[in-house]
Amino acid sequence: MSAPHVLVVNAGSSSLKYSLVDATSGETPGHGLVERIGESESTLVHGGPDGETRIEGAVADHEAAFRMALETFRGHGPDLSSYDVVAVGHRVVHGGEHFSQPVVITDEVIDAVTELIPLAPLHNPANLSGIAGARALFPDLPQVAIFDTAFHQTLPPHAYTYAVPAAWVGEHGIRRYGFHGTSFSFVSRVAAELLDKPLEQVNLIVAHLGNGASISAILGGESVETSMGMTPLEGLVMGTRSGDVDPALHAHLHRELGWSLDEIDRLLNRESGLKGLAGENDFREVLRLRDEGDDAAALAFGVYCHRLRKYVGSYYAVLGEVDAIVFTGGVGENAAPVRAAALSGLSRLGITVDDARNEERLAEPHAISPTDSPVAVLVVPTNEEWEIARQSVAALP
Ligand code: AMP
Question: Do 228 and 296 fall into the same domain?
Answer without folding.
Answer: yes
